[in-house]
User: Fold DUF1090 family protein from Cupriavidus agavae.
Amino acid sequence: MPFFCTFRLPRTLVRWLPALALWTAAPAMAVQPASDPALTDTSGCTALIDIVQESLRSEIEVACPKNGRETCEAKNGQIRAMLDIIEERRKRKADECDTLVQVNRLLRTLPPKI
Assistant:
């Protein structure tokens, strides 16, 4: 075997070792099937909705200022509607993560805080 081949082989192996490691680990890192119970757990979504509800309730407890009262009352009406949506979806036992997505979309329609 030529002298240069003995030094190139270890260098080539060192260069390709990370790629080989990823390639052999790819099946283990593959996405788990949807039937995995951990993927159907919505407790995180439930906790986030609880936080959003509490935040929205504290938002409408603040009295509207005299100037800009109409805008404030309109915003509070939207917040009350969101709270109603959350309550109705929970009564129907709708998916909590879907509820969170819907509420997130509605939150983006609120006017900015002044």
